Amino acid sequence: MTDTIRTERDGVLATLxxxxxxxxxxxxxxxxxxxxVALDAIERDDAIRAVILTGAGTRAFSAGADIHEFAGSIAxxxxxxxxxxxxxxxRLTARIESFPKPVIVAVNGLAYGGGCEVTEAAPLAIACDxxxxxxxxxxxxxxPTFGGTQRLPRLIGRKRAMEAILTAAPFGAQRALxxxxxxxxxxxxxxxxxxxxxxxxxxxxxxxxxxxxxxAVTRGLNVTIDEGLAIEAAxxxxxxxxxxxxxxxxxxxxxxxxRFVGR
Length: 263
Known about the structure:
Elements: E1 5-10, E2 13-18, H1 29-44, E3 50-55, E4 60-62, H2 67-75, H3 78-84, H4 86-98, E5 103-107, E6 110-112, H5 114-121, E7 124-128, E8 132-134, H6 148-156, H7 158-167, E9 171-172, H8 173-179, E10 184-186, H9 191-203, H10 207-220, H11 225-239, H12 243-254
Helix pairs in contact: 1-4, 2-3, 3-4, 4-5, 5-6, 6-7, 10-11
């Protein structure tokens, strides 16, 4: 573990903060690995129902990969560079995308490169009105490597994604909202409160049902509609016989609020 990731627990919510403000919260290898370890621990904790991921300070959510460190990997040749850089970054974004609990990214400043790719991978994202986004990798002579060439076109469309990737032009929070990259834009002072409110709203529902929704949507995006419908049916079947499904149906029939227990 590294001291560049702070984990805070507030009831059913866990907040992960990338804590490298002096480097604009750039994702060095140790920080990526620490995020993966933290997510593993959160997944094992049944009391945590949702995750908020943000950056320390007011300037950046994350400026992306730590290029000073990456330069050493490039110098070591293609095999080392691929192993240490894109595979590690793709492992993080894939973990966030497929995490069985909702990950809410709270973009508190710039989200460039890998920081933008983390936002793309998360199922939910809220940005402060001062946030900026940029697919900056082409300025370094490389394509996005943490999944950005694949997720961004799926999120906002091929031509819009190509423009962002090929021009490296920054765009603001309102444009990110229009494109569908984020869910909401809020004043900076309200950012974490808004993220927590969203997390609590989701946490009120049966956790297995939340996980089923996340899995069905994420897996279904990359298959045909028939395969997606089969995934949807399988997620439903996995809940049949669960205590929370029985409680939800009973509460509806009795005209009362359900009391979900996580089983």
